[in-house]
Amino acid sequence: MRRLPSEPEHIRKEKVREWSEKWRRRRFIGDMVLLSMILILGISLCIKNSDFVKNLKFRFNSTDCVIHSIDYDYGKGVYFESEGETALIDSGTESHSEELLNFIRTKGIEKLDYLLISDPDEKYLDVLSAVTESTEISRIIISQCDDSLFAAYDDFAFENLVTLSSADNMRYFSIGEMNFDILDAETMSAKVFLENNSFLIYNSCSEETELEIMNFSSYYDFDVLISLDGNLPSQKFIETVTPENIVINGDEKDTADLTASGEIYRTVLNGDVIIKSNGVDFEFECENQ
Hints:
CATH architecture of the largest domain: 4-Layer Sandwich
Number of domains: 2
Number of strands: 15
Radius of gyration: 31 Å
CATH topology of the largest domain: Metallo-beta-lactamase, Chain A
Order of helices and strands: HHEEEHEHEHEEEEEHEHEEHEE
CATH class of the largest domain: Alpha Beta
Distance between the termini: 105 Å
Helix content: 25-40%
Shape: elongated
């Protein structure tokens, strides 16, 4: 049997070289496709969960909540709104009923889901009567008071079909995405959370109450502390809860020794102070810049 001649050595080597190059190109392309898919998937997951996208949402006015420190001419009041639900801490004194009504009319508030009253004196019932003429109140939460005063508010609630609760029995509640935790039932000092943003409502606490709050909240770094009535907490309290920004709602106080890593706002100077938050970032707007 006759044997066919083999290919010349140089032709065989050329074919091997060509095959090797094709294999390397195909493997390179395959590796690049796989790497691209991994990168695309990883970037997509990062973008989906990143603060960057949430901040874009915030910058395009998709705000999840608004906190409005109301300038009651040395009075006090903080209004909260989230996903169409509302809450108001304090309504000002009885002399501020017209200012409160003007605020409600200007904001177009038709319903208050929660109204918290830190000083439930019977004279505030006149303010509530004026408010309920134009605004529905679902629930009133009052701080600690004696039985006769609670009965007076209970009578008002019955007449106006409002649910009445004491701060002792209503420590936790929420509106929209905002969660409220009443830290002290006597002063209505409370912490408010919206995802990663935290706000502390402070209202003339005694040293003992401050200590209780510090022991309970020492691991929190609050974004904003709002002094409801203008009275300032102790420096030790500030150093413990470490607020980034401070809003002083009410009378002008000496803030020379008050420190914050961010800004200090005063309604007596800045007018109404508005905080807009999306749970990741927040910004301030002031009536008087």
